[in-house]
Amino acid sequence: MATSYNSLREFVDDLERQGELVRISAEVDPHLEITEIADRVMKMPGGGKALLFEHPKESHIPLLINAMGSMKRMQMALGVQRFSEISEEYLGMVDPGGAKSLMDKLKLLGKLKGLQDAMPREVSSAPCQEVILPEPSFAPFPIMTCWPGDGGPYITLPMVFTRDPETGMRNCGMYRMQIFDERTCGMHWHIHKGGAEHYRRAARNNRRMDVAVAVGCDPAVVFSAMAPLPPDLDEMILAGLIRKRAVNMVRCKTVDLEVPAESEIIFEGYVEPGETRLEGPFGDHTGFYSLPDQFPVFHLTAVTHRRNPIYMSTIVGRPPMEDYYLGAAVEGLFLPVIKKQMPEIVDLHMPAAGVFHNLLLVSINKAYPGHARKVMNAIWGTGQMMFSRMIVVVDADVNIRDYNEIAWVATNHIDAKRDFEIVMGPVDELDHASPYPDYGSKVGIDATRKWRGEGFDREWPDKIVMRDDVKTRIDGIWNSLGI
User: Fold this and answer.
1) 210, 218, 234, 284: which is the annotated catalytic residue?
2) Domain limits at 369?
3) Are residues 239 and 115 in the same domain?
4) 24 in a domain, yes or no?
5) Which of 61, 130, 293, 324 is placed for a possible disulfide with 320 were both Cys, Cβ 3.0 to 4.6 Å?
6) Is 117 a catalytic residue?
């Protein structure tokens, strides 16, 4: 599987060819009704199908949802069978790994050219600017009110582009946007995210900050916008690496920013330093409503779009939802990178019910006393993994993707007083259980087999396992037993 897509509509066409898309011709209201249909589909085994609502109520623009809501569609989106393929290839580019001979070094230079080819490229004209609205407005678009308690309609899958006012570095993140009226909306920048840092730097200098929002890009760009990258890495480079070719970028009409040229819809505008408005509540990916709070206000200055655009959306709520599959791709993408930093890690997994930051399962090749605690603290010190509220560490022979197995092993291995490590630190902004916003406690659980060097002087028991020769004999007669 090596397909990559130039645009969202190429992806939609391929989904339809492969039987992964359902077109809905009935008129359905973006106010709650699309959510109810999409939620039922997302809860189907495997995540159901992608849905294209051709006639959203009060809009002539079709709405696409659940486009990446299955493992198959996520693999199609990134053009891989294993999500780790992307980072393994990238690590091969930047890590010579023993390139000793001249020929090896020349081969490495050839690989580095692939990195150069992934750099975003500016173009002078673009499909996303085929139509320019004479009066900028959110009104023509089927923007969803997802849940009954939401503060209003929300753009739920925006790629928000900003530029660091001090360094000029571009950032693209995914932050929900609550519609206040036809020309203003909330900009939900979490305190720890790149867009929020750009806003703080602009505010320190009392400068208005340009913002551009793309809706409906090719799936590699969508994925890259929500990937937890280091602040000095342009998300469009990651998209280029995934696509194996550069993302074409075009300069906006009213703001000093570039956006992906093949986007379906572009909202251009700005935020003013110090201007905030009450945003929320919002039915969030935790399965609970995030509470209303003050956030910056985005002012619309221009709207451009392709002819016959597609509005791309999603919903979040009680898992599993579409975002679970995006999270699974992030997990696979970053596992090889994490293993470079912590080679003792065998596997790492975030279950859907843990909503990414609430539960992290890790298996390790344990080599010394306290090794599990070393891994916990290293994870809490690594980028956005600092938000992990609960980390459970087990030995290498435990399958952390088999929830029955890890629950059986971990609960049998834990002595609460000895094996729980509680720390204070940053928590996700959506953590509603912490005593303070953005700050609270986290727990690490050492569920590895304990060693004498860790103060365990008793004999550790072996698992009950049948002998292989008995298994083989029974395999030979199993089908004849009539069981």
Assistant:
1) 284
2) 342-454
3) yes
4) no
5) 324
6) no
